[in-house]
Specification:
alpha/beta, 5-stranded parallel beta sheet, 12 helices, binds nicotinamide-adenine-dinucleotide
């Protein structure tokens, strides 16, 4: 197939050097680049002009897919894991092979969770800022050894966090109704059948669930009230899982000791975001899976998926 046109929107892919660029160049496809994530309106304006999307967290819902089908769209390859902005089931149902990249970024995201936990517990976010301002204030930190780490969602990332946190001496508890405790899991890992009982015992709580109709707004006032007083919440999943109004109430009341997140309900962060200037919050700009090692793995997989999808349609580069 000649003149395959690909729209590449993932900035993580674009901005990180590595062999994924060579792999993409070797396909011989014509690649055009935009800086994602693109809004629905932006996608609607672009989608019909391309044979394939090599996308990130752009909005690709039914309408976008249908507009794409009226034009050239044949294949969608998502760089990354989360499918909350991409209606993959619909795309596949209308004959557009659609892939993502599971199983290649869990180590990197898990290391980011540990980085957030350790940074916050040792006040590194404050100390770093203050020494830059020529100040020498010293805060007393906390160890994480001996803490109960509660994990909601015991999939690829949740398990990788468990492995790292065990090495730091944390006790691992998890809630995931779809992942029963298996014989290969360590005896010391405790599964909870009820979310509330996990919330009640966790000193540190980390979210590793997909965003969907069941998890949107899961962390609301009721959820936060059930959390142990003085506990910490980590969110590297999706911003929409947490209700910010309830979160701020819990932080202001001191019920929650801090909120450490890599994701927001709207990305990039909007001006004057109510969490932006709080000392009990750390926000990183959705870079949980962005390491040189992980980007190359994800980028290469996304390109290989793209090529394999064209092959599956019997469309190969001539
Ligand atoms: P995964 O599919 O391997 O694991 C998700 C787990 O959540 C599964 O075990 C599933 O059974 C469980 N689950 C689903 N609904 C649940 C619920 N209501 N309650 C409890 N458990 C539930 O996915 P993963 O690779 O571990 O990624 C998890 C999420 O992390 C992704 O969906 C994505 O949103 C996010 N993510 C973020 C980044 C980042 O850069 N910050 C990178 C990768 C993934």
């Amino acid at each position: 197939m000649n003149n395959v046109k690909v729209l590449l929107t993932s900035t993580s892919f674009q901005d990180t050097p590595g062999q994924h660029h060579d792999l993409l160049a070797k396909t011989g496809y014509t690649v055009e680049r935009l800086r994602g994530p693109l809004s629905k309106q932006e996608m609607l304006a672009q989608v019909a002009s391309y044979d394939a999307l090599l996308c990130g967290d752009d909005v690709i819902d039914r309408e976008v897919i249908d507009v794409g089908r009226t034009g050239r769209l044949k294949v969608i390859s998502k760089y990354g894991v989360g499918l909350d902005k991409l209606d993959a089931a619909y795309a596949r149902s209308v004959g557009i092979p659609t892939t993502n990249c599971p199983g290649v970024n869990h180590t990197t995201v898990a290391e980011h969770v540990m980085a957030l936990l350790l940074a916050y517990n040792r006040n590194i976010h404050l100390h770093s800022q203050e020494t830059r301002n020529n100040e020498w204030k010293r805060y007393t930190g906390n160890e994480i050894r001996g803490s109960v780490l509660g994990i909601i969602g015991f999939g690829a990332i949740g398990r990788a966090v468990a492995t790292l946190a065990q090495a730091f001496g944390c006790f691992i508890h998890y809630y995931d109704p779809f992942t029963p405790k298996s014989a290969t899991m360590e005896a010391s890992i405790e599964q909870h059948g009820e979310l509330g009982s996990l919330l009640a015992v966790s000193d540190l709580l980390t979210l590793h669930i997909p965003l969907n109709d069941q998890t949107r707004g899961l962390v609301d006032r009721h959820f936060l009230n059930q959390m142990k007083k003085g506990s910490l919440l980590v969110n590297t999943s999706r911003g929409e899982i947490v209700n910010n109004t309830a979160l701020i109430e819990a932080l202001d009341a001191g019920h929650l000791r801090g909120y450490l997140c890599d994701v927001l309900e709207h990305e990039p962060m909007l001006p004057n975001h109510p969490l932006a200037h709080r000392t009990d919050v750390i926000i990183t700009p959705h870079i949980g899976s962005r390491t040189h090692q992980s980007v190359v793995r994800q980028g290469s997989m996304a390109v290989e998926n793209l090529v394999a999808s064209f092959h599956s349609l019997g469309l190969q580069r001539s």
